[in-house]
């Protein structure tokens, strides 16, 4: 006995097959509702049902006023490693980092987080993290300049890793405390570097990094592109 396949399911399977075969790539726009209605001889409701299912399953993403697109593969943070780079590599991404600026600053609020004197110069390294050639995060790391000097920090251009640069001066992160929230990017330059619009909502992460003596060695702030980033936490009872 033959069973009729629901039209919405057929649309879903055809789109999934096109994605898996590479015919549709992340970021590609899929056919519009009107095109699919004619192609499959179905109603608007049927096409919207297919789109809704595929969006919920993570295959597609809808952008109001622009259309429906193949979703980008997200970097899923398992919170199992101190190194963001290591987690990306474990998930098969090609990674890179572009340094935005390295500078000495004084900032009373950040100094308080680092538990140092308000007038003590702080080394700041700002960089853009890339996965598969696309910007996914903008990170700013702050450390006491007595731990890492402006000159020593220049090696980050070669190491492509802030923690490897710290390791060169025998500063070793052991554990971190992270706070997650949602924050819009109001800085035009940061938004440009992340290739997103100003005031776009992002995951905003504040991190305190500790050494083996439980002393704070770094305070960091990171904007993550929400289209590329998610967090998974396993809780055992």
From TrEMBL:
Alphabetical UniProt keywords: DNA-binding, Transcription, Transcription regulation
GO molecular function: DNA binding; DNA-binding transcription factor activity
Chain ranges of the HTH gntR-type domain: 5-73
A Pfam cross-reference name: GntR
Entry keyword annotation includes Ribosomal protein: no
UniProt keyword annotation of Transcription regulation present: yes
SMART domains assigned: HTH_GNTR (SM00345), UTRA (SM00866)
GO biological process, one term: negative regulation of DNA-templated transcription
Name recorded for this polypeptide: GntR family transcriptional regulator
Organism: Holdemania filiformis
């Amino acid at each position: 006995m033959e069973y009729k396949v629901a039209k919405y399911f057929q649309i879903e399977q055809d789109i999934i097959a096109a994605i898996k075969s590479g015919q549709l790539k992340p970021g590609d726009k899929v056919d519009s509702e009107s095109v699919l209605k004619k192609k499959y001889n179905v109603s608007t409701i049927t096409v919207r049902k297919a789109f809704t299912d595929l969006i919920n399953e993570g295959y597609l993403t809808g952008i109001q006023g622009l259309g429906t697109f193949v979703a980008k593969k997200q970097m899923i943070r398992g919170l199992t490693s101190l190194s963001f780079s290591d987690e990306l590599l474990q998930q098969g991404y090609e990674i890179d980092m572009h340094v935005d600026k390295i500078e000495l600053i004084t900032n009373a609020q950040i100094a308080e987080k680092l538990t140092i004197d308000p007038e003590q110069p702080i080394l700041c390294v700002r960089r853009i993290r890339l996965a598969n050639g696309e910007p996914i995060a903008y990170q700013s790391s702050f450390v006491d300049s007595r731990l890492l000097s402006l000159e020593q920090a220049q090696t980050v251009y070669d190491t492509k890793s802030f923690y490897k640069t710290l390791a060169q001066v025998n500063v070793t992160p052991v554990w971190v405390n992270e706070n997650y929230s949602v924050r819009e990017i109001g800085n035009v330059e940061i938004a440009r570097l992340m290739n997103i619009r100003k005031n776009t909502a992002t995951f905003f992460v504040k991190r305190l990094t500790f050494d083996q003596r439980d002393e704070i060695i770094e305070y960091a702030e990171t904007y993550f592109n929400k289209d590329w980033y998610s967090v998974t936490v396993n809780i055992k009872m």
